[in-house]
Amino acid sequence: MRSASFLALSFASSALGATYQMSENIVGAGFYNSFNFETAPDPTHGRVNYVDQATATNTNLTFAAGNTFVLRADHKTVLDPNGAGRNSVRISSKNTYTTHVAVFDMAHIPVGCGTWPAVWETGGSWPYGGETDIFEAVNGQGTNQATLHTSPGCTMPASRSETGSAPTTPAQLDCDTSVNGNAGCGVTFAQGTSNGPAFNDNGGGWYAMERTNAAISVWFWSHSDPSVPADVRAGGSTVSTDAWGVPSATFPNTSCDIASHFVPHNIIINLTICGDWAGDASVYASSGCPSTCNDFVNNNPGAFTDAFFEFNSINVYT
Ligand SMILES: *[C@@H]1O[C@H](CO)[C@@H](O)[C@H](O)[C@H]1NC(C)=O
Ligand SMILES: *[C@@H]1O[C@H](CO)[C@@H](O)[C@H](O)[C@H]1NC(C)=O
Ligand SMILES: *[C@@H]1O[C@H](CO)[C@@H](O)[C@H](O)[C@H]1NC(C)=O
């Protein structure tokens, strides 16, 4: 009896190790309280003009009602090729986070030629504070890619417990921004519904990221996926990542001291247009997109009607 109850107790405490309490529930107009609008030029050379909060709300580039928050690029204006880029939005959380879980419940993500949406975290002096890309895609193509970008001395093992796949050369497993043209150590998701029209056609989905000093992991479940954990679906007051199964991407600390490569991070949501990745001539052409990226963006506002995020909530747990 004694040893059986000891066993039960030790199982209970190991499960508790990965149970988190909700610290923020960001919904609808709450996004305006929790995020700042950032208007600095896009460092990745996008054909984009990030607007301030007043402009975003006045022109409906952000919209909040009930449990909905929409963030979009302008889909009405033909652009002067010598003028500013397409109006869009970049928001950064007022709070910062170290070890935590963040669950992003999205009903819609931006798709279409020229779009480069991202949900990510960074902080401190880049790249010394580290960067975690949770959701990132270009031109509405392919599946999601989750990526770390760091200062030197953070590499990933080729073999890890994840459902996504990573290229395996030493350079591709090196998260150092000075290696491999700042490609980072990315993991491409196996799930076809993790991006593009398939994400939207299945009613959206949940992205969840857990950061501990032992690993950074990202999970994805489509809203049509019956295997989503009950605590994620419920968006309730606690989550237990132990029960979430094998992540889509995981970045363990085996040869990366996460505690020293990652400082407190802001959550950032931005939608850029063209630029170094989406607008790269070969990437853009291989996405089946017409003309050149900048020319297409300047002349075809109607192609951006689906270039929007719609959030049901962001829940943060610590
Ligand atoms: C603003 O955007 C929302 C969400 O897309 C939409 O429902 C609403 O009709 C738009 N309002 C105007 C005035 O265009
Ligand atoms: C990985 O993280 C765990 C938990 O914080 C820690 O005990 C361990 O020393 C770390 N290992 C390395 C190689 O940094
Ligand atoms: C978001 O900002 C980051 C860093 O400033 C930049 O690398 C990236 O291109 C931007 N992405 C989007 C989607 O705007």
From TrEMBL:
Residues 1-17 form the signal peptide. PROSITE patterns: GH16_2 (PS51762). The keyword Hydrolase applies. One of its GO terms (molecular function) is hydrolase activity, hydrolyzing O-glycosyl compounds. Coiled coil: none annotated. InterPro entries: Beta-glucanase-like (IPR000757), ConA-like_dom_sf (IPR013320), Glycosyl_Hydrlase_16 (IPR050546). Residues 13-318 form the GH16 domain. GO terms for biological process: glucan catabolic process. Residues 148-169 are annotated as: Disordered. Keywords: Hydrolase, Signal. It comes from the Eukaryota. SUPFAM superfamilies: Concanavalin A-like lectins/glucanases. Gene3D superfamilies: 2.60.120.200. This is Glycoside hydrolase family 16 protein.
